[in-house]
Amino acid sequence: MDFLLCIIGMVMVIEGIPYFAFPEKMKAVFRIAIEQPDNALRIFGAILMVTGLTIVFLVKRRPSFW
Predict the structure, then answer these.
(1) What number of other Cβ atoms are within 10 A of residue 38's Cβ?
(2) CA–CA separation, 63 vs 66, rounded Å?
(3) What is the DSSP string of 5-48?
(4) pLDDT tens per residue, range 5-55
(5) What per-residue confidence (pLDDT) applies to 66?
(6) Prediction pTM value
(7) CA 51 to CA 31: how far, in whole Å?
(8) What pLDDT does 62 receive?
(9) Tell me, what's the pLDDT at 21?
(10) Which of 15, 10, 19, 7 is nearest to 48 (CA)?
């Protein structure tokens, strides 16, 4: 459980960097996202999830060097 909470915390830090560093650009990104059809956003989300799962799978399968 500690590891999971650390992972969630790190994701929050990484997700927060663009909002902190480039707030005006993030507003523009949201405007663009609002104009996109729902299916385009769903496809983008699915691609991100599959990519993330693939990365986790590959990292867990490789031999550890630490």
Answers:
(1) 7
(2) 9
(3) HHHHHHHHHHHHHHHHH-HHHHHHHHHHHHHS-HHHHHHHHHHH
(4) 999 999 999 999 999 999 999 999 999 999 999 999 999 999 999 999 998
(5) 62
(6) 0.71
(7) 25
(8) 81
(9) 97
(10) 15
Is-contact 10 17, C-beta < 8 A?
Answer: no
Q: Evaluate whether 38 touches 45 at the Cβ level (below 8 Å).
A: no
Token representation of residue 23: 């707030």
Q: Whose structure tokens read 């989300």? A: 45
Per-residue pLDDT of 34-44, as tens digits, reads 999 999 999 99
Taking the C-alpha atoms of residue 19 and residue 31, their distance in angstroms, rounded to an integer, is 14
Contact 43, 36 (CB under 8 A): no
Integer Cα distance of 56 and 16 in angstroms: 22
Distances in Å between the Cα of 56 and the Cα atoms of 22, 29, 61 are: 28, 27, 9
